[in-house]
Amino acid sequence: MKDFIIPDRDFGTPAAKSKQMVTLNIDGFDVTVPEGTSIMRAAAEIGISVPKLCATDSIDAFGSCRLCLVEIEGRNGTPASCTTPVAAGIKVHTQNSKLKQLRRGVMELYISDHPLDCLTCSANGDCELQDMAGAVGLRDVRYEAIDTHFKVKDNSGVANPNYIPRDDSNPYFSYDPQKCIVCSRCVRACEEVQGTFALTIEGRGFDSRVSFGAKTDNALSSDCVSCGACVQACPTATLQEKSVIEIGTPERSVITTCAYCGVGCSFKAEMRGDELVRMVPYKHGKANRGHSCVKGRFAYGYASHKDRILNPMIRDSINDPWKEVSWTEAMDFAAAKMKGIQTKYGRQSVGVITSSRCTNEEAYLVQKLTRAVFMNNNTDTCARVCHSPTGYGLGQTLGTSAGTQDFDSVEHTDVAIVIGANPASGHPVFASRLKKRIRQGAKLIVIDPRRTEMVESAHIRAAHHLALTPGTNVAIVTALAHVIVTEGLFDAAFIQDRCDWDEFQDYAEFVSQPQNSPEAVEMLTGVKASEVRAAARLYATGGNAAIYYGLGVTEHSQGSTTVIGIANLAMMTGNIGRPGVGVNPLRGQNNVQGSCDMGSFPHELPGYRHVKGDAVRDIFEKAWGVQIDPEPGLRIPNMLDAAVEGTFKGLYCQGEDILQSDPDTKHVAAGLAAMECVIVHDLFLNETANYAHVFFPGSTFLEKDGTFTNAERRINRVRKVMAPRNGYADWEVTQMFANAMGGNWTYTHPMQIMEEIALTTPSFAGVTYEKLETMGSIQWPCNEKAPEGTPLMHVDGFVRGKGKFINTEYVATDEKTGPRFPLLLTTGRILSQYNVGAQTRRTPNVAWHAEDVLEIHPHDAEVRGIKDGDFVRLASRSGNTSLRATITDKVNPGVVYTTFHHPDTQANVITTDFSDWATNCPEYKVTAVQVSPSNGPSEWQEEYAAQATKSRRIAAAE
Amino acid sequence: MSLNAPHEGPHAKLIYMANQIAKFMESKPHAEGVELLASHINDFWEPRMRRHLFEVLDAGGTGLRPLVLEAASKIKRPALAA
Ligand code: SF4
Ligand code: SF4
Ligand code: SF4
Ligand code: FES
């Protein structure tokens, strides 16, 4: 759909990358453009829009509609300007009587096979066919087509065999073939931008039609992942958002940032009044470059879902029903409870959990609440359960937990290792960009127990898939290093220049030991030694090599060690400090990076500075006028342990659902139940709220101002497009609560919070809302040395000075299979759902993922008598649950896999309390389990459901 | 303490965690390992946890790996409960 609200000009063809410039003349004006630019784009640069239908600047030109013809002096014929590149000195004419006539002829043909119901068409006012008819001056259509695609019946009343009814199967957009002009923009967008290849053109000539694949008959059951790229590309109403069909065209748009994953896509929230009509990926967004996935593009319906809680609620006991109260009453109630607890049990008896979904400003305030108002360091964040080992591992080796690259870097990558991540599900827009690079010839190595979409999908095949046994990452990574060192493939010059050579010698000696060779660990990892050797050689010698990793690396008892091993690999091969290389943690939630930056961890103040540092405390003591505790505070698991022990009694939990997202659900429940005041600040009565005494309703990202920081350290603006339905933005709620506790805070806009962050935190020193306004986004560090931010880290030297090699001894997890629990369970995500699913489950995304299922290998299923779709009981030494099984060879024998998006499944009843040695990041990715046939929900699931229903009651207003 | 910890005794989980850190530090040059083990615990373990650790250490340190025992003198003994 073209864009007429904030006209993001469509230049017709993508920008050329050449540095060679070429000057030509178009309609009497000289224009200078990079070599390889199309004539169409060159004309657009000087404001001349050549009529076009099949070209758009997100995809390569195709040259099928013949509307964009031009004349070039001295050349024959009328070439298509979209497919003809510029040449030095040529003189181009875009408009003369011959061209006018030709174009009208083309348009006449199109219009004769197009319904003339423009007035009632959903694309009315937003249709390129309409615009082009106007542009070429089409005034009549001289003939009536006998055969059409749009007439339901022919003139004699016989059904028209060419008419295909509208396909409404996708919950978010419809496909109405009668309006299709077969320009193939959608097909090319699906291939080039998204990389799914779900669409094809079937048939030839008049018979050619767009089709969602031959095997399937509709959009929903096809390979389509509902990214929306084809919908943006379609010039007509053929592919159209249902929300536009329902509401009408938008009248204004606001640039904001997706609140789902760590890619941090920029969007235009297109509005009519205060109604959100649609979200369209923003072409100038530097993380996504105009692309999106189904979550950000379509799954925003949760914001207006009926389950949203809009009034504050309180209760004395979690067995009581909730009572709706005024904001003041809720604040007073909560403050009185928390003060009482601190008086009775001491300063350390309360704490906070900051949200990785809220803005930087909001996370900052929550940690400030505990440090400056509660006067302790008991703050933690959900990043504990995902990327805390990244902070430790990269901090130790490179000097900062920051990912080293921006997403654009992937365009220069020759070899990518994807380890413990499934970007196609977790970071879809990045996956599309990576796949594009792979289709251009880059090589891919996947290290994952499961055969993910990255291993094999349309036009993508990994050069190597190391399908390791869960829990053996360190062994594999060390074996890769063994090959690189013993075969002499390391970059000695880089190491000598940038790292400590002696430390490298020690490390080299360590990894060269025979027990670290691929052959020696083959039995352990289950990966053929020859594959490991081949992968290591490719990584070390294949050109620019980048490592992308996810939770499959961090969520292990040796998570931090694997991160260290990854950094070692990058350093020893010199793959750091330039485009196309680096160490790239793929962060889960939208603002995991930001919440960590903002000092959410109990041992460090904003900007990753340990609380023991006098100088750092001094900065904040001056800024806040309080004394800051020099001892580290409690981490989430410590809070729960301390609660069970009776020393931790009060928690303010902002936008997190620890009961569902943290491991060992029963332990979390016991911890929460032991507390005297649990304050949940969220959109919905989440699972944690079953144990809460106070509920502060939260606001969505559409309802507040602020910033998110994505996985590439990019600070993006979040902009308020509508008033908060609950009355207050989340930062205002935290402020009200802090003030009820005696905080005396006086922020009137998040901008002022950012000012305070910039003032106290060196890596943010140069960040202001004004700069974000003009630059669009900024990658930290942004300060005097880097006033425009820092796209690439460690360019001239490591942040810590010399890069540090650290030995990575493999220590097997104590979570071992045995006769009772012979299978290894590993967990993951799927595309259409997000985290614990609280938001996505409240959108039509459930069309793709209605429940969590257990993947099991045919062999393991057969010996247990399990058939596809059967209910099975999944048990570990922690607990058991029931869910449906699906039989697939995506997992190896001995391994089972599930997601944890639905509370009914309670996958975390199964996971244990083993955790990373350095950070206590839980070991989600390995649990020894048994699977057996079952006929329904487990006892725990039933008890849990009953407790949840009881706890969610809200008393009727008096 | 986790209800289902695979360990016995009131401080079993803590002992387990200290030993986990020790196992990593054992692959370092000895003196560095001792130093880093202590500073790791000082930096990341809040006073309550360290108090529990000292309860174990003071009782003889049963179950702790030798490296933890060696590092003990460098681990900060927390002030009494605030
Ligand atoms: S929505 Fe995305 S995946 Fe589906 S057909 Fe369109 S471009 Fe392809
Ligand atoms: S559906 Fe739209 S984009 Fe695709 S061929 Fe038809 S008109 Fe073109
Ligand atoms: S969920 Fe992630 S990839 Fe999808 S639109 Fe949002 S930020 Fe982009
Ligand atoms: S726009 Fe050039 S041929 Fe269609």
What's the arrangement of secondary structure elements?
The complex is a heterodimer of chains A (958) and B (82).
Chain A: E1 21-26, E2 29-34, H1 39-45, E3 71-72, E4 91-93, H2 97-112, H3 128-135, E5 173-175, H4 185-194, E6 200-202, E7 209-211, H5 229-233, E8 239-241, H6 242-247, E9 252-257, E10 266-272, E11 275-281, H7 294-298, E12 313-314, E13 323-324, H8 327-345, E14 350-354, H9 360-374, E15 379-381, H10 388-397, E16 415-419, H11 423-426, H12 428-439, E17 443-447, E18 456-457, E19 460-461, E20 464-466, H13 473-486, H14 492-498, H15 501-512, H16 518-525, H17 529-541, E21 545-549, H18 551-554, H19 559-572, E22 582-585, H20 592-597, E23 604-605, E24 609-610, H21 614-624, H22 636-645, E25 650-654, H23 658-661, H24 665-673, E26 677-682, E27 694-697, E28 706-709, E29 714-718, H25 730-740, H26 750-760, H27 769-775, E30 777-779, E31 823-828, E32 853-856, H28 858-863, E33 871-875, E34 880-887, E35 895-899, E36 927-933, H29 939-951
Parallel strand pairs in A: 1-4, 14-15, 14-25, 16-17, 16-21, 17-20, 21-22, 25-26, 26-27, 31-35, 32-34
Antiparallel strand pairs in A: 1-2, 3-4, 5-8, 6-7, 9-10, 10-11, 12-13, 12-27, 18-19, 23-24, 28-29, 29-30, 31-36, 32-35, 33-34, 33-36
Chain B: H1 12-25, H2 30-44, H3 47-58, H4 66-71
The complex binds iron/sulfur cluster (3 copies) and FE2/S2 (inorganic) cluster (FES).
Task: Write structural notes for this entry.
The complex is a heterodimer of chains A (958) and B (82). Chain A is α/β, with parallel strands linked by helices. Chain A is built from 29 helices and 36 strands. In chain A, the strands form 10 sheets. In chain A, strands 13-12-27-26-25-14-15 form a 7-stranded mixed sheet. In chain A, strand 12 (313-314) and strand 13 (323-324) form a beta hairpin. The radius of gyration of chain A is 29 Å and the shape is globular. Chain B has helices at 12-25, 30-44, 47-58, 66-71. Chain B has 4 helices and no strands. By secondary structure, chain B is mainly α. The longest helix of chain B has 15 residues, at 30-44. Chain B is globular. In chain B, helix 1 (12-25) crosses helix 2 (30-44). One iron/sulfur cluster (SF4) binds at residues 258, 260-261, 263-265, 288, 292-293, 295-296, 428-429 of chain A. Residues 52-55, 63-68, 80, 82 of chain A line the site of FE2/S2 (inorganic) cluster.
